[in-house]
């Protein structure tokens, strides 16, 4: 069995950088316009340099996100933390569903890979990963059953049925009932 590598949507990186530039450019121009006459332009330049470094680091981290499946393991390179290797023998099941957020738009495909205790090993969100990438990884998980949920699931239903698959802020949302 060969190795399969899937990467996140590159278009999100460019959209995010465009938004940051659209916000930062007028803000920085205004700050320079106000700071240079009083001799504080160096502070703005320092802040701009820090912003640029943060953008480069975030861009590199986002661009390096990937999921790799080989015959024996699943290698996950997430955005924030370091890479993790998971033996395919440790994967007990995977769930592919379409999640509908409260007040959201169309449902988004998501895949949850769980171990025997129900602990989350990998979550692929359709906001970041193409549906084809999610389905490719699901098809390569040959050691575990992959459950495809036919109907869209709401976040409330997922909170009740499998809260451990969600992040802490998805488990405790603010409700206005």
Q: What does it look like?
A:
This protein has helices at 10-35, 41-63, 131-140, 155-161, 168-171, and strands at residues 4-7, 66-69, 73-77, 84-87, 93-100, 108-114, 120-125, 146-148, 153-154. The protein has 177 residues and is of the alpha+beta class. The strands form 2 sheets. Strands 5, 6, 7, 8 and 9 form a 5-stranded mixed beta sheet that branches. Strands 1-2-3-4 form a 4-stranded antiparallel beta sheet, with helices on one face. Helix 1 runs antiparallel to helix 2 (41-63). It starts with a strand and ends in a 6-residue tail after the last helix.
Mean pLDDT: 88
**Helical residue percent?**
25-40%
The coarse overall form would be: elongated
**Protein structure class:** alpha+beta
Low-confidence stretches: none
- Which sheet architecture does the biggest sheet show? 5 strands, mixed
| SSE series | EHHEEEEEEHEEHH
Note the gap between the termini.
Answer: 51 Å
């Amino acid at each position: 069995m060969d190795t399969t590598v899937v990467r996140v949507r590159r278009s999100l990186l460019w959209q995010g950088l465009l938004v940051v530039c659209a916000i930062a450019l007028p803000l920085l121009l205004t700050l320079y316009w106000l700071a240079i006459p009083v001799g504080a332009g160096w502070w703005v330049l320092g802040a701009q340099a820090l912003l640029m470094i943060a953008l480069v680091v975030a861009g590199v981290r986002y661009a390096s996100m990937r999921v790799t499946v080989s015959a024996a393991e699943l290698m996950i390179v997430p955005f924030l933390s370091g890479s993790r290797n998971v033996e395919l023998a440790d994967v007990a099941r995977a769930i592919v569903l379409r999640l509908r957020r409260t007040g959201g738009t169309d449902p988004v495909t998501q895949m949850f890979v769980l171990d025997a205790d129900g602990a989350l090993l990998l979550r692929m969100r359709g906001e970041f990963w193409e549906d084809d990438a999610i389905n490719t990884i699901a098809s390569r998980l040959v050691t575990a059953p992959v459950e495809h949920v036919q109907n869209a699931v709401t976040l409330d239903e997922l909170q009740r049925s499998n809260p451990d698959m969600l992040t802490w802020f998805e488990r405790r949302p603010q409700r206005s009932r």
